[in-house]
Design goal:
This protein is of the alpha/beta class. The chain contains ten helices and nine strands. The strands form three sheets. A four-stranded parallel sheet has the order 3-2-1-9. A three-stranded parallel sheet has the order 6-7-8. The protein has a two-stranded parallel sheet with strand order 4-5. It starts with a helix and ends with a helix. The chain binds 3-phosphoglyceric acid. 3-phosphoglyceric acid binds next to strand 9.
């Protein structure tokens, strides 16, 4: 589950509007060598897309992103999501995920956020919005007082093929997330081969 993201070190952040796109997208990622994906709860189709992939694409580990309420956590879990993430740290959302036994990474951006997350029992944190919050330099600074706690980050927001290495080279970075290989135009225009190519390229650049 979450271990697979940590092994692959890259998690595509997917926004899907149509369930019909779920399988070709999962296939395109698999052809590129990636067997994990985060489907964000930003569309009405999110839960159905997760359910489709969880039941039809056994080789893919699917998680849910942008979980903003306990109800969404429940729906994600019911649909078959095996991990969850959020852009921020909402204790109610986190408690719900913990009560369901769902590995969950809340979003943090400041030292105060990091300490709150650690206090709530989380040590794998989404760092969002990574680029706007100071990028690798900010993560390096956060590593100073917190690396010894064992905390690790999954930066997302503003990561792309040009800057991904700067993040992956940091020891506090467990994995990175982003939309650059699965952006909504590529999905809307069904450019599956391009998604495969961009995925392959991202994995090769690790
Ligand atoms: C996320 O939720 O992680 C971000 O929307 C991804 O940001 P990106 O589009 O800049 O990769």
């Amino acid at each position: 589950m979450i271990d697979r993201i940590l092994e692959r070190r890259i998690c595509p952040v997917v926004v899907l509007d149509r369930v019909d796109d779920a399988e070709p997208l999962a296939d395109a990622l698999l052809k590129g060598g990636l067997d994990v994906m985060e489907i964000t709860f930003r569309t009405d189709a999110a839960a159905d897309c997760i359910e489709y992939i969880a039941s039809h694409c056994p080789d893919v580990i699917v998680g849910a992103g942008t979980l903003l309420s306990p109800d969404q956590v429940q729906r994600a879990k019911d649909a078959g999501a095996t991990f969850g993430l959020a852009p921020g740290l909402n204790p109610k959302v986190l408690e719900k995920a913990q009560s369901l036994g769902m590995p969950f990474s809340p979003g943090v951006m400041t030292p105060t956020d990091v300490e709150q997350a650690l206090g709530l029992g989380c040590d794998l944190l989404k760092f969002f919005p990574a680029g706007a919050a100071g990028g690798p330099k900010m993560l390096q600074a956060l590593a100073g007082p917190y690396a010894h706690t064992g905390v690790k980050f999954i930066p997302t927001g503003g990561i792309n093929r040009a800057n991904m290495r700067e993040y992956l080279d940091l020891s506090v970075v467990a994995a990175i997330g982003g939309t650059w290989m699965v952006d909504s135009t590529l999905i809307l225009e069904k450019r599956w081969e391009e998604i495969t190519w961009l995925t392959r390229e991202a994995l090769a650049a690790r």
